[in-house]
Amino acid sequence: MELTLKRGDFLNELALMQGVVERKNTIPILSNILLKASDGHLDLTSTDLDLTLLSSAEARVSRPGSVTVPARKLFDLIRNLPEADVRLKLMENHYLGVTCERSNFRLVAQPAEDYPTVPKVEGKGGMTFPLDDWKRLTRKVLYAVSSEETRFQLMGALLKEKGKEFELVATDGHRLALVDFARENGKGTLPNVLIPKKALAEILKMDAGEGGDLEIRHSENHLLFRVGSRQLIARLLDVNFPDYEKILGKGNDKVAIVPRITCQSAIRRVALFSPERARGVRLSFEKDLLTIASASQELGEGSETLDIRYDGEPLSIGLNAQYLLDFFDEAETESVRLELKDENTQCLCSPEGGIDGASRYLYVVMPMRL
Fold it and tell me: Which DSSP letter does residue 117 get?
């Protein structure tokens, strides 16, 4: 294998690969990246067995071939090279030679045959969606996906069809985020699928240029996400997502309209005095006023009162400060709508007036005892 390619092109693809490479080192080969040179381009592959990323970069290939090398070490090396063409050459005893101007390096490599086989997705069902819109809507729910590895059914976001729309929903058991959006041009179909959190996060790093699309296809066991020449293949989470409809609540009859940025800033300040483990703040509502308060024996106490629109009975509820801040970050609108019932019932949050590109954006937070 021997080829020459631009450092910038190579570095861009290597940077994307870092998010997929297995870091736990339980299977050493998974910390490597597969390089395959042929027909005027260099193909790159990284995998942790659950997620596989394939991409390519233009190259002048003088001798085709393939090899696998440590992903992080290669990335760090290319990142620190000067902005010039990079020459790769497979040498004897499985070394990969890297040359750039007057710099010469040899990386210990392994045969390409040792690298895991890439799964194939040949399913017929799929959909296409503008990438920028998909990324924006994904951010509305990604923060609610569980990070607990023991709760497999919560480690992804559920994508399901709802008539002429799709619904994307995520929950970690303490909160839930849901967004409904229209199909692009009414086209495309998918079964209900649970998209792994890591796959959602990696798509956010991709760029297709202005007007670029994301194509999603599925097979029995995998999902394929295609952005330009890049393909991300995710193993489907074969678990049942919780029945979340019942917690969306129908009896929350007390409505508060709260200025988003003002409330967000107040929560950040007041939460400095909440216990670090619980991160709880108390929201007390009365006629057109909201008081946010927190206290701990170790830190002291703080409170702040805001002008809002509220015409219900006085009500006080404890909520996780970070959960509220996550929603405020993504709500976009000038004001947010909080629907409440009592201190023991979940709080329903939504952007006042809705957001562009979505028919509904709903966030549900379970109350805390403070």
Answer: P
Would you say 335 and 260 are in contact if contact means Cβ atoms under 8 Å apart? Answer: yes
Which residues touch 340 (CB under 8 Å, ≥6 apart)? 252, 254, 255, 256, 285, 312, 315, 317, 347, 348
The CA distances from residue 264 to 19, 142, 299, 352, in Å, are 31, 19, 21, 15
Token pair for residue 333? 């609108």
Q: Identity (one letter) of the amino acid at 247?
A: I
CATH C-level class of 248-365: alpha beta
pLDDT of residue 239 exceeding 80, the answer is no
Supply the pTM of this predicted model.
0.87
Chain segment 325-369, per-residue pLDDT in tens: 999 999 999 999 999 999 999 999 999 999 998 999 999 999 998
Reported as a single tens digit per residue, the pLDDT across 159-183 is: 998 888 899 999 998 999 999 998 7
Query: What's the longest Cα–Cα distance across the chain?
Result: 79
Sorted by where each begins, the domain ranges of the chain are: 2-114, 126-235, 248-365
Strand partners, 283: 292, 317
Beta strands 289-296; 222-227: pairing state: unpaired
Provide the pairing of β-strand 360-365 with 65-70.
unpaired
Q: Is pLDDT at 186 greater than 70 in this prediction?
A: no
User: Yes or no: is domain 2-114 CATH 3.10.150.10?
Assistant: yes
* Size of the chain, expressed as the number of residues it contains: 370
Domain 126-235 sits in CATH at: 3.10.150.10
Q: How far apart are CA 78 and CA 76, in angstroms?
A: 6
Q: Please tell me if the domain spanning 2-114 has the same topology as the one spanning 126-235.
A: yes
Token reading at 316: 């006080």
Q: How far is the C-alpha of 122 from the C-alpha of 104, rounded, in Å?
A: 42
